[in-house]
Amino acid sequence: MSDHHNIRLPEGSIEKMTTTINLGPTHPATHGVFQNIMEMDGERIVKTEPTVGYIHRAFEKIAERRPYYQITPLTDRLNYCSAPINNMGWHLTFEKLLGVKTPKRVDYLRVIIMELARISDHLICNSIVGVDSGAFTGFLYVMQYRELIYEIYEEVCGSRLTTNIGRVGGFERNFNETAFRKIHKFLDEYPSVLKEFEKLFNRNRIFMDRTRGTGGISAERALNYGFTGPNLRATGVDYDVRVHTPYSSYEDFDFTIAVGTSGDNYDRFMVRNHEMWQSLSIIRQALQKVEAFKGAESEVFHADVPEYYLPEKQDVYNKMEALIWHFKIVMGETEIPKGEVYMSVEGGNGEVGYYLVSDGGRTPYRLHFRRPCFIYYQAYPEIVQGSMLSDAIITLSSLNLIAGEMDA
Amino acid sequence: MQLTNDIIRNRLTEKFGERISEWAEPDGILTFTAPREDNLKILGFLFDDDNLKFRFLTDLTGIHYPDRKDEELGVVYHMHNLVDNIRLRMKVFSPVAKPDIYTATGLFSSANWMERETYDFYGVNFVGHPNLKRILNVDEMDYFPLRKEFPLEDQSRVDKDDDMFGR
After folding, report:
1. How far is B58 from chain A (nearest CA, A)?
2. Per DSSP, what are the bridge partners of residue A370?
3. Which residues of B touch A96 (CB under 8 A)?
4. Burial status of residue A297 (CB atoms within 10 A of its CB: 0-12, 13-18, 19 or more)
5. CA-closest candidate to residue A72, choices A171, A153, A169, A166
6. What pLDDT, in 10s, does the model give residues B96-144?
7. Can you give the residue ranges of every domain in chain A?
């Protein structure tokens, strides 16, 4: 008698006509820590159950004991493909609570950084969709332009991925010559690259066959599921936070919102491509506006709010005023108003919202991040039901799911 | 006619009268508190009414006020009317001893995971939820970590051996 007689299979597992497979959590095709327990009938998905939370770091709890100016690094680690947008979103939230008004030049510089971040976010997402449908070339090719964007961040704030860029009221330092030179370089070189990238995919027979008609969702369902950003716009709803509730002087810019019709993978891809062109145009306009400032105005890089804006380190050592304010801010001696604020920005993959409740203390009483991909990922089982496993992989990357943002 | 906070407020007072309280506009968003047994009625009214059309649930989250007697746990709904582009904030409070609140999953599919998250961190029991279990934390966890009685570790503590971590 062998030991095999002792094996007890779960009830009904022999009679069952479907196969259960475990996709993830660390499968290379999922580009992040996602687990899906899938019930398969041959190659078709009957049912899937996503598990999330593998990289949950309790940011909302940590934020409750951090002074306001130390919360920016937490927001980096939400959507790490476009960290600067999250940083700016947090600064704008805190500024809204304090009632700080930023100068126009600061707004435009922020717009430049946010649009660069949007391009790098969409670039990753779209090229990964290419990789998942078998085209690696585009991904490798555009990486050097993401690198250029990261070099621009580096010039402005010193770091690349988790940027921690900016301060309450503005930036920690003015953009230097090199930063502007690199932005110009990016604006000069990137359009031809994007054109080539589009040539590689947009009318590519294989790519179209793989993406059209897969992973689609109707506008009605998408709204009910709380979709925002490019995924919502691909279904035909023209909701964009930059237009609906302009922040950081987005109302001064001229741009269009791309919408799709069927909300499938191809539409999402096209919407993102179009948004990259629009972002380029916004950066160009912003740069013109920044360069039009003359005299003292052309040196402004933060609002004049010494009670909240951390002064430059050199000034802290040499100037009495700066030393006092630095001490007060760091020791939590500044007046923080009581109140509650909801502020949202258009992130790389949707409406990134911050719900902040302050009780007047040096730390938030409650801070909640509205993370767009946490909300729209719950539609994934409905989207992929009945589709092929290989299409489900493309859908996963085309939805632009970022594990860091989902799990907060 | 442009929908304004005043119109919304009048419509709601007309329909629900004194049951809605604590009106405020802290950041330009109309905020009010609803009794917990009426939350679905109000959400449904906001959803169905031809003028109000609050058909997008932006955010749903919890909050804990240990000092509010018998209404310690709150659930905050952020609604958005995408046609008129106006937002709304509704709060519902429940006692921490029996935190039962009706689920909004019947109206909004997006409420599913957001309510699971709120349950996970605050222990709010969403009555009627199809799959109310933990989502971000491990299933074995037996407490609700975002409640205020769980402080984070004191950063100045000295009794811990941190030699290996360079602190």
Report:
1. 7
2. A353
3. 27
4. exposed
5. A166
6. 999 999 999 999 999 999 999 999 999 999 999 999 999 999 989 999 9
7. 69-347
Interface residues of chain A, partner chain B, Cβ below 8 Å:
52-53, 56, 58, 60-62, 64-65, 96-97, 221, 223-226, 237, 239, 244-245, 339-344, 351, 353, 355, 357, 366, 368, 370, 374-379, 407-408
- Start-end of H helices in A56-136: 59-63, 72-76, 83-98, 104-132
* B5-143 has CATH 3.30.460.80 classification: yes
Residue position matching structure tokens 């203390």: A361
User: A69-347: what fold?
Assistant: Cytochrome-c3 Hydrogenase; chain B (1.10.645)
CA distance A148 to chain B (A): 34
Question: CA nearest A325: which of A88, A96, A167, A106?
Answer: A167
- pLDDT tens string A3-62: 566 767 777 766 778 888 888 787 777 777 888 899 998 889 999 999 988 899 999 999
Size of interface A-B (CB pairs under 8 A): 86
Closest Cα in chain A to B62: A368
Contacts of A370 (CB under 8 A, 6+ apart): A344, A351, A352, A353, A354, A355, B58, B59, B78
pTM reported for the whole predicted model: 0.92
Q: Determine which of A48, A70, A97, A340 to mutate to test the interface with B (most B C-beta atoms within 10 Å).
A: A340
The H or E element spanning position A314 is helix A313-318
- CA A308 remoteness from chain centre: 26
pLDDT value of residue A1? 47
Contact A118, A279 (CB under 8 A): yes
Q: In this predicted model, what pLDDT tens digit does every residue of A161-218 receive, in sequence order?
A: 999 898 898 998 899 999 999 999 999 999 999 999 999 999 999 999 999 989 899 9
Residue reference for tokens 């933060």: A302
| Cβ neighbours of residue A226 closer than 8 Å, sequence gap 6 or more | A375, A376, B56, B57, B58, B108, B109, B110
Q: How far is CA A51 from the centre of its chain?
A: 21
Q: What is the ipTM of this complex?
A: 0.91
Give the pair of three-digit tokens for residue A300. 């402004």
